[in-house]
Amino acid sequence: MALQLKGIHYQYVEEDTKNKSELLLRSNPVYKKIPVLIHNGVPICESRIIIEYIDETWPAPPPLLPNHPYDRYLVRFWADFFDQKFMEAVGLVCSGWSSETKTFMSRKGHDEYAQMAMTLESGIAEMERRGLIYLEGKTCVGYMDVCFAPYVALFGPVEKLFGLRLLGSDKCPNLHKWIQSLLTNEVVKLTLPDGNKVIKHMKRFLGID
């Protein structure tokens, strides 16, 4: 998504995470995971580091990170919260699913998710006030949008597989508005994975028939 926004030509190579290639293992021997950006023969690893690398290597508009130090801190903080806390809570919810009973075995994951969603909601409100997230017709796609948008492709499949509504407009209006704005952006739509493909991958990953 960052490369598309910058207008950089690239080759996209899919990876089977169950059968990792020699290229991946050689390019990321520490974490052995995707994504990896290979630029001039040198691998750059970890999603958010890759985004910052792209922004610094190709500084032409649009800038992904904001100029003000506090604003840069803010988007980095909430991107980290999203990765470390919010998605961890989503994973906790999904891990409680029983394929036999077709129900969730515990409410713990739901409660943790609800708390993390409301916390993220407050962060989104602050970033919206400072113009740090994409809103159609008002701001450009930036760092936080690029970090968050790929996960939007998970919400529909999770709802379809588990009957679980992750982000509703009633309790998380800022998040809901942000997601709807992102889905109007042509670059975001172009780079999101196909929903059916995501469902197939999730079923394989979670062992669901």
TrEMBL record:
Residues 68-205 form the GST C-terminal domain. GO terms for molecular function: glutathione transferase activity. PROSITE patterns: GST_CTER, GST_NTER. It comes from the Eukaryota. GO terms for cellular component: cytoplasm. Residues 1-62 form the GST N-terminal domain. One of its GO terms (biological process) is glutathione metabolic process. It catalyses: RX + glutathione = an S-substituted glutathione + a halide anion + H(+). Keywords: Transferase. InterPro entries: Glutathione-S-Trfase_C-like, Glutathione-S-Trfase_C_sf, Glutathione_S-Trfase, Glutathione_S-Trfase_N, GST_C_Tau, Omega/Tau-like, Thioredoxin-like_sf. Its EC number is 2.5.1.18. This is glutathione transferase. It comes from Taxus chinensis.
